[in-house]
Amino acid sequence: MLEVAQLTKRFGGLVAVKDLSFSIRPGEILGLIGPNGSGKSTAMLTVMGVIAPSSGSIKLEGAEIGGLPSHKVARKGVGLIFQHSRPLNRQTVLENIKVALIPDRLNMMFHSAEIDEQARAIAERAGLGAVLERKPPTLAFADLRRLELAKAIARHPKLVLVDEPFAGLTASEVGAFSELIREFRSEGRAVLLVDHNVKGVAALVDRAVAMYLGERIAEGTAAEVMRDETVRRVYLGGALTRTTREAAAFAGAAHLLAVQDVVVRYGKALALQGVSMHVSEGEFVAVVGLNGAGKTTLFNAISGLVPHAGTVRWNGSPLGGMTAASVARGGVVQCPETRELFGDMTVRENLDLGGHLLQPADLTQRREWLFDLFPILRDRESQVARTLSGGEQQMLAIARALMMDPKLLILDEPTLGLAPVILETLSKALERLRNTTNLTVLLGEQNVTFALPHADRLYVLDHGKLVWEGPPDRFEAEAAETYL
Fold first, then answer.
1. pTM, rounded to two decimals
2. Domain closes at, from 203, 236, 269
3. pLDDT of residue 426
4. Are 472 and 214 in contact (CB under 8 A)?
5. How far apart are the C-alpha atoms of 271 and 416, rounded to whole Å?
6. For residues 314-339, average pLDDT
7. How many domains does the chain have?
8. 201, 236, 271 — which closes off a domain?
9. Are 201 and 298 found together in one domain?
């Protein structure tokens, strides 16, 4: 049905997809998986004609479609189910489906009773029978996803492209959505699922192609891909190393941070589902999970950056209703995944801004301590932040957070996109903090290999839920396979 050969897509000097080849047969579901930034969504959008390939071939039933605009690709029988719903908000559910059914020629715009009947049948099939007359802004998130699927059904596609099929859905909704996708397979259609989570689509796909940095790194059944050493290295980071600090050291320590039944929604999407966890004073706790698992959302809820239901307690007192600034001044300081440095300010100015509440003598002393922790920052003291390398910017972001003299430091994906030599520097700095200070750290990481040596305890977050908790020495035996 679909044959992609040597597909390459460049954006200026960036090669987003490189020499990618795969094929899908009629009645087959193929999973295109990989971490964020691996190129899978670019590959899908190139197949759909949303973006043009730089080189390579894309054939549908033997006919070349590579480079055609998306409306012509759609006419040839390719349908795309977007991750983010794009309905006509002023029309009802039934009217949205009718628009997809009406042929795209002006002389056939007046639809008949037959089209109305078809639209109702499609709505029932997609599980929308009870909300036919409602408008999209009033729908639950899962119903918005069903509407996107219903619109795709209406076009009678030969090939269905599905982007992040289960993002934001509950476990029961995932099951129902999976059944609808399986119906495409039973009807002889080809399906391409794009997802960052191997485990999420494992039960649904017939085969999986794993991508990393634009290239195919593995292909086979979902089980074979999950066992592939290259895939495990990409997701887990390599051989797993265990912690050396005694877990019993914090058994009787007070809970500095206590999170109870925290729920966060972004619009209709459920990002965190009743998360409960704790961090003891002086403890290093890692929250590991794939991209999209909810780590950043959890940290932003703790830091007062996003509204949430449930309770976050700091030193026994609830943080609900406090501003992010007040939370930070109280000792909970987050170093965000996006770093948020002031690019036109120097290294020293960024650091001094972080320590602006300190007395001059304390400010100087703390700056010197951080220069000792990250010596490269001393050499770059008068350099503006935007001219630093990615690794140097990450060190500066962590150092600026430490300038606030936090009691709890939240590190969100500190290793993202960094070279191995920088990872080694960060690892040594964290180990030094762990062994020579009373700092408490909450570390969010996709790279389990980096997280394990620095953690006294781990939580595994998956689709907004905590699915495992325990010491590092139990992770490989109990949770490594589940993590993928």
1. 0.61
2. 236
3. 87
4. no
5. 21
6. 90
7. 2
8. 236
9. no
